[in-house]
Amino acid sequence: MMVKYGIFLGCLMPFRYPCVEVAVRKVMDAVGAEYVVLSDYSCCPEPVFTRLTDHEFWLTTAARNLALAEEQGIEKLVVPCCGCFESLYEAEKAIENPEEREKVNAVLSKFGHECKGKVKVEHIVETLHRDFMPKIKELVEKPFNARVAIHYCCHLFRTRFGEDIWLKHDITRDLLRVIGAEVLRYKLERFCCGFPAFQVDMEFSLKERLALKLESMRAVGAECVVTACMACITQFESGQLLLRRYGITYNMPVLHPAEAMALAFGVRPEELGLTVHRSPVPELVKRIYG
Q1: Which spans in 140-253 are helix H?
Q2: Interval 207-265: pLDDT, tens
Q3: Is 141-289 in CATH node 3.40.50.11810?
Q4: pLDDT exceeds cutoff 70 at 198
Q5: Parallel, antiparallel, or unpaired for β 3-7 and 35-37?
Q6: Of 147, 142, 139, which is closest to residue 268 (Cα–Cα)?
Q7: Which of 80, 89, 165, 175 lies in disulfide reach of 124, CB 3.0 to 4.6 Å?
Q8: 3-class secondary structure for 82-104?
């Protein structure tokens, strides 16, 4: 039996940020999406270092996830994380090449899988905006009245052929405005948060990337950061704590768009488990909702 949407949760969401997983499920349930959560998956895997280090391993691992989606009757694999989106979408495009697909399937066949290239990968902001925008407008009970700085995750600039490079980011702005947020423009909007550099040079990543980004957001009066990437959320939250080693202090709440949307739909904060966050998200939510 075919199901229209399958959710790829990835690694960080269920193990480090279950609040985001809960929010994604709440939002998909509220809009009436026909979906399942992909089971038995592995890491996407990480789209930068893994691909550069061992391209064949990266593609085979990603293609296994796509094969699982096919086996589970999924038409569209919906990904709430930008990094996972890029990895899986790059794999989708790579296996359009018959030679690449044949090599991948030679390995997958040893484990009882075959990737036929039938599943389409998309980020959750695309799904929500294209298929559920009228429903989202109807569902807003408690507007997310906050001044928001969106972090435009680098991986979300990955486009389809002929697509506007800003499309998915424009979509993210539209979704946040619909639920009541005031979306602010700021300098360094396309500046990387520094997560990839953290693996090589922590001090550079924090002081020359994250701190500059946060200062740019604070300068326009942002109350919180919203970003649709789990690695970026990790960098913004853990990074703010680590910056204190260098005498640099920020205290900016960081959320995923699905969390803001679930709150706007009237989901109670305690249902989401927002205390998992390492930034002052509960304090922000208390300010908005009392």
Answers
A1: 167-178, 195-198, 202-205, 211-219, 230-243
A2: 999 999 999 999 999 999 999 999 999 999 999 999 999 999 999 999 999 999 999 99
A3: yes
A4: yes
A5: parallel
A6: 142
A7: 80
A8: HHHHHHHHHHHHHCCCHHHHHHH
CATH 2.40.128.260 fits 3-124, yes or no: no
CA nearest neighbour of 231 among 76, 48, 88: 48
Name the one residue in this structure whose structure tokens are 């589970």: 72
Identify the sign of the CA torsion 37, 38, 43, 44: negative
Residue ranges of domains in the chain: 3-124, 141-289
Q: Quick: pLDDT tens for 3-47.
A: 899 999 999 999 999 999 999 999 999 999 999 999 999 999 988
The order of strands in the sheet holding 224-226 is 182-184, 147-150, 224-226, 254-255
Q: Tokens 């205390």 sit at which residue?
A: 275
